[in-house]
Amino acid sequence: MPADLHATADFPLSIRRDAILRGRLRRERWVARAVAAAAALVLLAVIGMPAFLVLNAAGSIDNLSTLLPLLVGSLRASMYALLFGFPLAVLAAIWCARFASARLRALIKPLLEVFEAVPSVVLGLVAALSLAPWLAHHVVTVLLFLILAPLLLAFCGAMSERYPSVARRLARSHWQLCAATLALLATAFLCNGLAGMLGNSIASAFWEPATPWNALLIGLVLGVAIVPTVFSIAEDALFGVPASLADGAHALGATRWQTIWRLLLPAASPGLLAALLLGFGRALGETMIVLMASGNTPVLDLGLASGLRTIAANLALEAPIAIPGSAQYRLLLLSAIALFSLCLIVNAMAEMVRGWLRRRYARL
Amino acid sequence: MSERARPVHAIDGAGRWLSAGAVGLCLLLLAGLLALLVQQASSAFAVLPVEVLSLRGDPGDSLLGELVEVAGDRLVIRGSEWRRQGDAYRRIAVADLTTRDRPQDILLIRLRDGRHWFVREAVYRSVERDEPIVWSGMPAGIVLHHSDIAEVIAPNRLDWVERCRTLLSRAWLFLQGGRAQAVAGGDGLLAALIGSALLVILMSILVMPLGVLTALWMHEYAGSGWRARLIRASVSNLAAVPSVIYGLFGLALFVHTLGGSLDRWFYAERLPAPTFGAGGLLWSALTLALLTLPVVIVATEEGLSRVPRSLRMGALALGATRSEMLWNVVLPVARPALLTGLILAVSRAAGEVAPLMLVGVVKLAAALPVDAEFPWLHPSRAFMHLGHVVYDQALSGNDAVRAGGRAYAAALLLLALVVILNAIAILVRNRLRERSRQFQDD
What we know:
Chain A is mainly α. Chain A has 14 helices and no strands. Chains A and B meet through α1, α2, α3, α4 and α5 of A and α1, α5, α6, α7 and α8 of B.
């Protein structure tokens, strides 16, 4: 059959149309095959990755106990990161979802989304070169700030409600944000001054970091790194709670904070749990910050003052020089499998919890 | 307001301030990060004051050098680096100084490889026309060629406009320098920028077809059956895998298994030296393609789900087959979403360092992955990467004072690239949402 059927008038119309249709259907089948093959490839990658790692790791493994400090290091770094980052992110999400004006929210949310894209090597650089030497001399300042800042902010808030004129002005969300930020800055200066007065004597008596690259530094920087992840999920969960619930509570005379504390947080708790889990997973897998700023010392110690070495950082350090098939290589693969399964479990739990949330809202 | 109501309102105020403070802290941290990066990066290129010092108990010549840092009661001075960068630092106690002066007539000669030499203006002007240039006071065996000079300035005489201009010109030199990096270890980002760009381009070519086809299958062909749910769960899990695991997987599969086999089959004559059996551009691009696959799939699927049903139905009603409908109607409408996916994947890949350390990025590449030699692109070669330059300069630069600044400069550039890419992606996505809302209104 001639290839260019459109141009030849020798054949009756029906034959020409049939031939064109046959070509179109053939193309249709090929597209369907290509698309399914791509999907199969993705599935293969997901199943193949752990399978390949397991196959390569097979064999006798002797010094399994060397993995323990790494595992503990990973968990410790993520725990400290969550301790600092989770409350910060959830509080920020609460403010963004319930207190911020629509315009402010439209500004802050993308800003924090962009913050999520900051490469972790940049945060690692800041932690290793600038923050670590500074922190070594200002431990007391930072600890004082972490304790005093929430107390002072709460105190300012409670006081501001006593003076209706102040409270009315601060009802505008951008003024409230400015006032709170100024209060934070004032607290920071206060802490610096206080620490300068009593810092050296008290700090050295109670607590002296063995190294500038310690778990406190990792907790702070890794905590900041997970804030955008936790924030965006928690904010979505809080914002997604049906407005009728909050309206009902307000109508019954509850204050905004009572509504949040008694109603919104419980209603959004599956979302918050998912945020917690995903933040934990992100912290577990984070490599560059820990690699650059943790000192990479595999010690079995739970304190804030000692360094640590995580599975991820260990992989980045040792895998390029490990000889394929050697015992060290198999051990590395095994640690990778452990990290992989931990992250998968955490992610699967987060997905389940999110699905639960979705079903619950469907009912409301 | 009754007395009993007061604690409730106090708690209300406290909670509002506390949560506002959390947002404020996040914004402060963001601003602080930016300020720190800009400040540190510009300090790497700043013009430092040059001092002439003479020491107690040192009868020889007075010391000539830039004041790098004042640390308590000590000065860090960088003298003329006659042989290599970073060989002329001195830490001097202020108490040991007898005279300290900042004369106007000192010249700073900056060489093309980044070394700084200092000389009195009168001495330099008297010998300037010679080739090679030699003046008294230079160590034996050292000469200066006119072609080596990058800039000659009098640091103590500059006003702030000229200082800014010098800073910018040095920053520009750092950005586009580095042609000689492979040979001389000079400073510059060109090789790293080329490496990053090639990597990202190659990765995009690999990831886009696969990601878009998979999203098409999930959204258009599989419906919501168990197979679609399986793939969807796989993609979500793929997104949760730490990036360094991808690196290890790339190392084990691509480099050791595939690369090793390729070497044995095609490059047996070179064999103890690996061709594809070591980390390289191709393997890195494949690893990153796998890493960014979920990003592309999720973005594409979102775009596909925003294509109005009426458009599909119209195309089908006019007699289009499913693939024709997808190709001619759905994909063009969803094009901004594909673009968003691509941009997000590129920005993710540009910032990733950990997996690359396992599959092919190096501190100093012997040759660029592109050159004038026949296949022009050499996918088996190791390459340099902007993110890795940050890591490498921060922790193992050979001149600690300068390397820190360079790391910050590279980090600032990397951050700017990533943030701009992300901002574009967010803008494109918002416009897409607006448009899909318009479609629904029609």
